[in-house]
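Board notes, transcribed. Complex of a protein with magnesium ion.
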Amino acid sequence: MPNQIDLVILGSTGSIGVQALEIVEANPDKFRVVALAAGSSNLQLLADQAKRFSVPVVGTTGDRETFTQMFTGKNKVEVIDGSKSSSEIAAIACDIVLNGISGSIGLGPTLAALSVGNKVALANKESLVAGGDLVMAFGRDQIIPVDSEHSALYQCFLSGKASEVKQVILTASGGPFRDRNKLSDISVADALNHPTWSMGPVVTINSATLMNKGLEIIEAHYLFDLPYSKISAVIHPQSIVHSMVEFIDGSTIAQASPPNMKGPIAYAISGTNRISKATAPIDWSAKQSWEFMPIDNAKFPAVDLARRCGELGGGLPAIFNAANEVAVEAFINRAIPFVKIVDVVDATVQKLGGNSPITIGSLSDVSAIEDDARVLANQLVQERK
Ligand code: MG
């Protein structure tokens, strides 16, 4: 990696993007932001970011005129707009593209970045769930995980050889409802109130259903080329151990730090180097107690469902994810209750699974599968209102 890293940030106004820019601001000698991309939801913030970091190129799906009116920087900024703007920004020559987009709309930009040879710091797990074969066809060297569990695994793998890995263990906080017996009366506000992590709304809801852990099992399968039989998950309410690798000699290596996404973001955007004070370390002057316990699969069926979709492969993980995106949006809009989220996903997978292609050949294959899954999932939502 060069002394100063040229960085492109996709999803710059979201949770990951904002935290990445805080790391950049704290380390101006280490990073230069060469482009930003964001959706239409917070154009003012995008304009402020472009000014503060003197960014020469900005992409947005929002209105170009509105952005230009909001932008008050002295620097000259080129604006790329339209639905493909993130993919165009992703293909700008740079050292690292951070993909902090939420949802499987992040897949196109990931592929656009990889296809021109850019390295991708990948926070968009849906890229791997929906298009894992397409993404990994570019090789593992071009992708650096940002998801905290996968960043942990990446770091733990450095302790041994691939042939010495017995299994990997993803940790899950268990979300806000780990100890709650009745899930039928959960409100949107309850589900958005995560006990340990501060994240965007979709991933927070996915943590409450444990759908997030299911997606991360599929993510780990593609990222590290592991069979599903070697990927397990365990509840760890404190969210300090971010994941573990068990080696064949019976030794387990864990990566630990207080829950803060700045750790894995900084490690990834620096090209797997360690940035001084990226995040606060564990305070060993205070009593620590770390608990681990098995997942209650009857209460949280999402993890097993994800595993089954992952094992069947082909288009099923894309169907699984697209149905979940529809169901989560329906829950946030108060169209279905919390317990119906996994129900909608399960029913969509069962109905479409038989027709799912064995292999995914292109981005348009993924889009076609997702469109079918979204139409069906929306119908199933209507039936469950
Ligand atoms: Mg994670």
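The first helix runs from residue 15 to 26. Residues 147-149, 216 surround magnesium ion (CB under 6 Å).
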